[in-house]
Amino acid sequence: MIQESIQQIAIVRLSALGDVCHAMSVVTAIQTRYPNAKITWITGPAEAQLVRLMPNVDVRVYHKSSGFKGMFALGKSLKHTQFDVLLHMQWSLRASMLTRVLNAKKRIGFAKSHSREKQHWFVNQLAPEPTGKHVLDALMSLAIAIDVPNQPPSWNLSIPNSDIVLPDRFVVVNPCGSKVTKDWTLEGYRTLIQSLISQGLSVVVTGGPSEREIAVCNAVSDGFDVLNLVGKTSIASLLDVIQKAALIISPDTGPAHMATIVKTPVIALFALSNPKRTGPYNDQENIVSVYQKLVEEEAGKPLEALAWATTVHRKDAMAQLPQEEVMAKVNKVIRQLDLIVD
Q1: Residue numbers in the chain where pLDDT is lower than 70
Q2: Among candidate residues 271, 274, 266, 269, the one with its CA nearest the CA of residue 251
Q3: I need a surface site. Which of 89, 109, 113, 282 has the fewest CB within 10 A?
Q4: With contact defined as beta carbons under 8 Å apart, do 280 and 263 qualify?
């Protein structure tokens, strides 16, 4: 396809926040290559709050709970739009079914090696093999399929200033993942917060509005002089908080990748998935992980012999992350960033 032939582009990436962060850099690259094209992005309600911070993107929200009824309603709202290309950036069957209500000449999905849940049945063109092992590289391969040059990720966002009063220099501790199995230990987080405070650093605790996250954030904050923002931020205001932070410490979840968007250093804690595939793209050296050890024990094979998306299944995986390793990494990074005065 030459540039002049692409005027309407559909992006289908419904969730999750971290993956949407990766996809946003790909869409930024597409906008640079096709500045006159209209981009319509179909995503989930929480993720839409993030995507709306991008310029010149028509954001359409699909609620998973609406099922086929919501898909048909979405298709009806776009029935007069003929997309020149649809980039199918999610390999779930739900997302694949949704793509069928859209009118598109080209439907591009991942290369067979990265296709799951029969995604290749719903497209008429496959992207080339990704140039790297990270999820962002896989997403970028779809843009490469429409002649977008491969390039380092970048983001172009307009982030509103929140009204939250924050300390001058602070570290964000985001203790909860999207699932309880992604959470590190309560003892570990409390030791971490105590250490940060003892070194003269301000701490801001963040988390979503779910009962679990509120309970966890309150428990890790109890008795400490911290700013606890659990359940008090929108996606946009959380991004502003992370942008103003000197550092964020988080498990594998959305805020860790939101930090990458705004160039805030992140220390990410991993056990369930390969951080080289799903970790913060620009902070690979700051990841603390027991993934390789656990996945090799579980599979009985070396990591190199396993499929690219192999995950660890034991529910207590994050509890195997040694507290001393996390603290050593945190102390090293806060000194590299000159956050404390020796």
Answers
A1: 1-4, 341-342
A2: 269
A3: 113
A4: no
- Around 21, how many Cα atoms within 13 Å sit in the side-chain half-sphere? 22
Task: Return d(Cα 288, Cα 270) in angstroms, integer.
Answer: 6
Q: Give the model's pLDDT for residue 1.
A: 45
User: Residue 191 is encoded by which pair of tokens?
Assistant: 């030791």
Question: What sign has the CA pseudo-torsion 269, 21, 25, 115?
Answer: positive
**Which stretches within 59-185 are classed as H helix?**
67-77, 93-99, 135-144
**Torsion over CA of 35, 36, 38 and 41, rounded to 10 degrees?**
0
φ, ψ at 57 (rounded to 5°): -125, 125
Q: Which CATH architecture has domain 3-144?
A: 3-Layer(aba) Sandwich (3.40)
Token pair for 33: 């290559």
Kindly report the CATH number that applies to the domain delimited by 170-336.
3.40.50.2000
**DSSP string of 244-272, one letter each residue:** H-SEEEEESSHHHHHHHHTT--EEEEESS
**Residue among 333, 193, 196, 182 nearest 265 (CA):** 333
- 155: which 2 tokens? 């983001």
The whole-angstrom separation of Cα 231 and Cα 276 is: 30
Rounded distance between C-alpha atoms, residue 314 and residue 150, angstroms: 37
pLDDT of 341 reads 64
Q: What is the DSSP letter of 316?
A: T
| H/E stretch holding 273 | none
Every domain of the chain and the residues it spans: 3-144, 170-336
Name the burial class of residue 306, with classes exposed (0-12), middle (13-18) and buried (19+) by CB atoms within 10 angstroms of its CB. middle
How many residues in the chain? Answer: 342
> What 3-state class would DSSP assign to 107?
strand
The pLDDT score that the predictor gives to residue 262 is 98
- Report d(CA 335, CA 326) in Å as an integer: 14
Helix residue spans in 44-185 (DSSP H): 45-51, 67-77, 93-99, 135-144
Token pair, residue 66, equals 């609406």
Same fold, 3-144 and 170-336: yes
Bridge partners, 41 (sequence order): 11, 59
- Separation between Cα atoms, residue 165 and residue 126, nearest integer Å: 48
pLDDT at 342: 57
